[in-house]
Amino acid sequence: MALTANLIGDRQTFVTHLECSLTGERYEADRLHGLSQAGRPLLVRYDIEALGKALPRDVLEGRPTDLWSWRELLPVRHTGSIVSLGEIETPLVPIPASGGANVLVKDEGRLPTGSFKARGLVMAVAMAKELGVTRIAMPTNGNAGAALAAYATRAGIETVVLCPDDTPEINVREIAAQGARVHRVNGLIDECGAIVGKGAAEGLWFDFSTLKEPYRIEGKKTMGLELAAQLGWRLPKAIFYPTGGGTGLIGMWKAFDELEQLGWIGSERPKMFAVQASGCAPIVRAFEAGEEHAERWENAHTVAAGIRVPKAVGDFLILRAVRESGGRAIAVEEEALQRATAESALQDGVLLCPEGGATLAAWREAVAQGWVEAGEKAVLFNCATGLKYPLPDRSATLDKDNLPDLARL
Amino acid sequence: MALTANLIGDRQTFVTHLECSLTGERYEADRLHGLSQAGRPLLVRYDIEALGKALPRDVLEGRPTDLWSWRELLPVRHTGSIVSLGEIETPLVPIPASGGANVLVKDEGRLPTGSFKARGLVMAVAMAKELGVTRIAMPTNGNAGAALAAYATRAGIETVVLCPDDTPEINVREIAAQGARVHRVNGLIDECGAIVGKGAAEGLWFDFSTLKEPYRIEGKKTMGLELAAQLGWRLPKAIFYPTGGGTGLIGMWKAFDELEQLGWIGSERPKMFAVQASGCAPIVRAFEAGEEHAERWENAHTVAAGIRVPKAVGDFLILRAVRESGGRAIAVEEEALQRATAESALQDGVLLCPEGGATLAAWREAVAQGWVEAGEKAVLFNCATGLKYPLPDRSATLDKDNLPDLARL
């Protein structure tokens, strides 16, 4: 189904088991799982020692650089389970004018369906296919639903997607175009999630909500793996991550641990900054209050739909990673994120999505507060293409039959 | 300005001169040029023999795979001239359900600003910077203007962009967001071009119209270079290319010649299919009439804005390449291109742009007519992300306070 050399033939796999992220309770691999008994996300565990012996780092470095170059560190057993749409390594693009000399945007909008959600969903759909799932449902703020639809369609799996009724129009339409049945719901993403959960309890479908199945986190983990390889196995000083459900932040943190166990990186870690909007900042509130869990944020609102997540099931994992790293959770005002988005395009030619703009605003805030130094290498995650979001109309008109002085154009 | 190893330090360059594509008249390299004296595009020539000695193929294969891995085959002399936004190698994505087992989509929507125009403009802007240009104007149907704006902004070059007043809204807005001054004109792209030409004659700006400066073609050439490398130096049997100005088709044809001179590929060539819409098919009309040049197409119309080009300055180069290759120019009906676009998304999870959909429709027609065999390897160029184009709304609504039987979703 795909051309990369990483998808020609099976490769050795090293999954040993899954475990509850809260209690450490052990679960069997190669079986369908949702949350743990304790109602928490399951984490996939590997025999890292055997993996390290089987896969020298230079072998990995000789492979095509796409997501599937990491197969030994991923849960899929059989190549035939994988449906690929071309999961390329995303570039690191400097934004010297609107950011700083060492500020790099990891442009995740280059992935299939235009967002980082492709990483999680390509993995989760492959595992669903491997484990015999035939019907999936999911709540989404947009991009996750689009990625699910594309991959599930390709895998021959039926999908039902529920989204808040003010989800960006383009997202709703692309989800349907790619073969899912889409319903707009008069509520936020967690309310859509409750309906998905109800249907799953009735046996109607498998629940693909963020972190409610164990494999999206493994796909998102590749952001951390890829970043390490791209930067020559030296992690940046800081990572700014737009945080809704937080799968990517949790996934990167797990990736760094696995890379250290392999001996491919040392014990240094970037400061992890969980970026939220001031209109929906449950993680920031919990971080500042010193809490381990985050309460639901009422009346959530922000133009950055992807981080409008009032309640995250992996809240304690996000908070733990942020704190262990010496980073912070940062809330940015709407005006600051919109200004950052506009300036990145206008000054550096890089059209960020609003969530990506939020990370630039947060980086600016972190520099202002002295949480990071302006010259330190920082990576901002632009989680989706800026083309999915509305832009202002700044064009003029010109009458070809009645031209003005062209010097004034 | 960028992280790829291909942009660390200068590399040897091999440009010897430029020549008129019609008369062969010779022009000096490293000077600013527009069209030739004969009013035709200029082609860049290299010392291929010296290049072959300096750059063994395995050295090239060891480099990061982005566009700048081809630097010895490109015109830019100095690394400092390059403004990069992350010009990654675009993936080849199979579409087995809507196309066939050997039909691959080259997904150019993954490039900066979401289209293949980035290839031409990153090169042309680098050369403009190298040669001291400070102000550029360009007519566009959308994507070229967006790419120009992003790169020129980053290079510190002022830009004026003129587009037909029915250019897709998202394009007009992204061009302005990325720092260009955009004007909507009550005319088609060649009428916008005439205004740009008038301003250039008045000395107001440098004219960046398709093929009117010599370097966009060198950037687009990388589509052919990249394709050859990705397919293990064996070209596909057929290439379907959405053809407006035709720079990419001309560029690929040039690339294949240069690769053969290097001894990296043999003399076999793909059949080149120039794909147009039946509402704007000047190249098809000229092809079928056995003409060397194509007359302007009056009352041009098609939803595929990128190929709504009534008159191409490189018409004879397109026609020559198509004929030499044993390919054809094919016009597809609106309904066929829209059906192909819809089916690729719905059946394969690949959201093509309308111009990309046109190539799938043309491939289907070519199979039906026996011009290609269904099982032969064919590459379709999806020139831009499908996310830039309007999609139908196929969503339903759901009331969270009054849920229906979920089994019916």
TrEMBL record, chains A, B:
Keywords of the record: Lyase, Pyridoxal phosphate
Cofactor(s) in the UniProt record: pyridoxal 5'-phosphate
Does this entry carry the keyword Lyase?
A: yes
**Segments forming domain Tryptophan synthase beta chain-like PALP:** 83-383
A Pfam family this protein belongs to?
A: PALP
Per its UniProt record, what InterPro entries does this chain match? Answer: Ser/Thr_Dehydratase, Ser/Thr_deHydtase_PyrdxlP-BS, TrpB-like_PALP, TrpB-like_PALP_sf
Q: What class of enzyme is it?
A: lyase
What is the name attached to this protein's record? Threonine synthase
- Report the source organism: Qipengyuania benthica
